[in-house]
Structure formats: C-alpha cells, structure tokens
Amino acid sequence: MKCLELAIPPLPSLLTVGRAVWAPGSRHQTRSFDAYDMILVKKGAMYLREDDTEYVIQDGQLLLLEPGRTHSGTQACSEPTAVYWVHFRHPEPLRRMEAEDIPWSAMLPQGQDSDEHPADQTMYLPKFGDVPFHLLQPLLDRMVQLHRGFAVEQSLKLQVLFCDLLELLQADLGRRPGSRSAALARETVSYLQRSWSEPFRSEELEEALHFQFDHITRCLKKYTGMTPLQYVQHLRISQAMVLLEQTSLTVQEVAEQVGIPSASFFGRLFRDRTGISPGQYRQRRQSHL
Question: What is the C-alpha separation between 288 and 52, in angstroms, rounded?
C-alpha cells in the first residue's frame, strides 16, 4: 500500500469533518486548496482525479488528497454513496513510500529535561486503499457529532479524537505484511532488546534468528541505521544514562551493570553518544533536579 510520511511535531490539525450520502449523479467538484482532504467511502463508489492520477474509491476504502494538488471528479456516482470526509492542515509529505518500507524499528533521540525543542519525528498515513472501516466508523461518527455542536468545550476533545483516528490508520499500516527484510529487522530488535545486557555474540544471534550474521546486519541497518552491535551499545548507553541519574553507583559499577566491563571503553562509547563524559553527564543531570 502506498503511504505518506509526515513530519511531526507539530501534529496535524483538524479543520472539519462530515458525512453525507451522495445521490446518483453527484460528482466531486474541481478544486485545489491548502489542506489535506481524507475521503472514506462506507458504501458505493466515488470517482476522483488528483492531478493526473485517477482513483475509484469503493466500499471500505480511503483516499488522502494532498494540499496544493488539483482534485476533480472524473464521473458521477452511479449509486447512493455514503462518504465521510476529514480536512486537516499539515505541511506537505516528506515522501511517498510503500508501507512495507516504513522504518518502524528506527531509533529516535530520547528527550532530555534540558531540551528546548523536540526531536524530528515522523508519522505515516495511507494514501489509497482498504482500511479497517469497522474500527474507524465509531470514531468518525463521534467526531461528526461533536463538530455539529461545536463549542469551546468540545474543541480539544475533537482534536484528540482526530489524533486517535490518525493513530488507528498508522497502526493498520504496521499490521500489514511487510518485506522479509523488515520482518527480520523487527525480530532482531526484539531479540536485542531482551538480551542487550548479556555479552554480545554474533553466533548466538545467528542461532536465534536462523540467518547469517551479515544478512541480519544488512537488514537491521536498512531500517535502524545501526549494526546489531551498535544497536546493543545504544541500549546499554541509554540504560547507563538512567543509572547515572537515579543511582549513586560509580562509573565503573554503572559500566558493569550495563554489560561493559571496561570503564575506559564505556567512557568512550558514552562520549560518542552524548558528547560528554559519564561524570559530566551525572553532574549536569543532578544540577537540573
């Protein structure tokens, strides 16, 4: 399934939501505006063009029209067609991609209490295709109901429900069968998250996943940007940061706790990750308490 990658934060902002039954002979108008137009067909069919690409949206399908593109109906509805529409504002997509190529396992920077801006993140929405309408419809109906009696009291709730809708759509993308390399990357991440504190041995990884280490490495690096050992080191340093903040263990003891017996090697890894030594990190964090 084709999908869109959107930069967050900020999250998309809902503009309006509605539902209607289009009578036979009805046809979508031609327009271009600076908002996303999400169209979901419950029953019937709509015929649309976005720039030069034509779509037929049928029962249980979604089409996400993008801002700045020209949308027009290619033909009239031939039967009563029940539709929902959701308009929202957000910058144009970072890219268009196949759902199986979404880098679900990619690591993101962990926020610190000294940060003043959030790290760059991404979210994913289907461009066109089948969606779990039985899960979406209760949310859509509730959103339409709140919008019809729109007041200050409902404004935040309506935006929250809209985010729930987006999360459901993204979660459905994550449940779809992906490529074999993506599946192996996820299995590798799961294994390493369970075993990061133990000595790293490529042979044990091969035995657990039933693939050669070089192949495992290529797949994991494709979706996370890290080799298995780099991923383990990332997890170890993340745990070390917690121990430095929340315990009085010495740096040597922290290193041993996270599976790195050499304090000097631990210090180099920690500095590569954070830009400062473990001792400096502890001092800075404690000064923020």
Answer: 55
